[in-house]
Write a structure and sequence with these properties.
mainly alpha, about 100 residues, two-stranded antiparallel ribbon, 2 helices
């Protein structure tokens, strides 16, 4: 079976990655909801932290900003496929 080579550290690392992803999503939803309620670009101001809502109209640095739907879906499929390949390759290794 493919899962017998997986160590405890791999599961811990996978859980940490998912937790970071979930915390990132929750924080983004929270900031968007705050901006809807206050109608202000500057959401929180303190000595150490200023949160400013900025919308990126492309991927990185505005790349592929011409047609959103097709490029985002295509790149999402490529990223998920690549992540699955990397996950399968790391599971098949004996040192995981």
């Amino acid at each position: 079976m493919i899962f017998k080579n997986i160590s405890k550290n791999f599961y811990i690392s996978l859980i940490i990655v998912f937790l970071i992803f979930i915390l990132d999503r929750i924080s983004k939803i929270y900031v968007i909801n705050l901006s809807k309620n206050s109608f202000d670009i500057e959401l929180y101001t303190s000595k150490f932290l200023n949160i400013t809502l900025v919308w990126n109209e492309g991927i990185a640095f505005g790349l592929f900003s011409a047609s959103h739907e097709y490029w985002y879906n295509f790149l999402t499929i490529i990223i998920v496929f690549t992540a699955l390949i990397i996950l399968i390759m790391s599971i098949k290794q004996h040192g995981v």
